[in-house]
Amino acid sequence: MNERSIGTRYSEAVTSFVDFARTLTPEEWAMHVPCTPLWTARDVLSHVAGVPDDGLAGRVDGAATEPWTQSQVERNAGLPVDELLDRLMSQYEMFGAAIDQMGEGRPPFDCHSHEHDIRHAIGRPGNRDNAIIHDAGETLLSTLAGLPVGVAITYEDSTTRQAGAAEAAAAATLSISRFEVFRSRLGRRTLDQVRALGWGGDAEAIDAVIAEWFVFGPSDIEIDE
Question: The pTM is what?
Answer without folding.
Answer: 0.95
